[in-house]
Amino acid sequence: MTIHVSPESCPALVLNADFRPLSYYPLSLWSWQDAIKAVCLDRVNIVSEYDLKIHSPSFEMNLPSVISLRDYIKPARHPAFTRFNVFLRDRFQCQYCGAREDLTFDHVIPRSKGGMTTWENVVAACAPCNLRKANRLPADIRMFPRQAPYHPTVYDLHNNGRAFPPNHLHQSWLDYLYWDIELEP
């Protein structure tokens, strides 16, 4: 029996020149078309390949499963202040009750009381907790975040992102994603 695999189901893991993923969450993946284009433009090295071949009249090659950039890209030092990054910093859970559904964000010190929309004043919160806290101070309602809000580093976000792997991890990617896990004896 022949199983047909679509190239669309074969993204390439993109590593920096030091063989670390450009990003962990979201995982740095390129479509097969972008990977092939980068190979042809000599911008990347192929580290690992899928068994699937692509063909043209004058060309044939296996689809790359892992590629590394030829030139090192210096990672951003300070992550952007986005809703997604706040959720990632807080591990996608409400900082008041621990729920993981219906997340929004809350100003610990409400804006109506002078609180700013900054890393140090915003936490992930589920909608029920956010509604319950409303525009009150934590001490007034006895609702304190489990973790004080802080300005994370890119390293903090990468570490948190490793706890939320994508739905599909190709076997050839695993050696490059989990270098810091404890090895089995």
UniProtKB/TrEMBL annotation:
It comes from the Bacteria. Pfam families: HNH_5 (PF14279). Keywords: Endonuclease, Hydrolase, Nuclease. InterPro entries: HNH_5, HNH_nuc, NA-targeting_endonuclease. One of its GO terms (molecular function) is endonuclease activity. Coiled coil: none annotated. Residues 81-131 form the HNH nuclease domain. PANTHER family: OS07G0170200 PROTEIN, SLL1193 PROTEIN. This is HNH endonuclease. Gene3D superfamilies: 1.10.30.50. It comes from Devosia algicola.
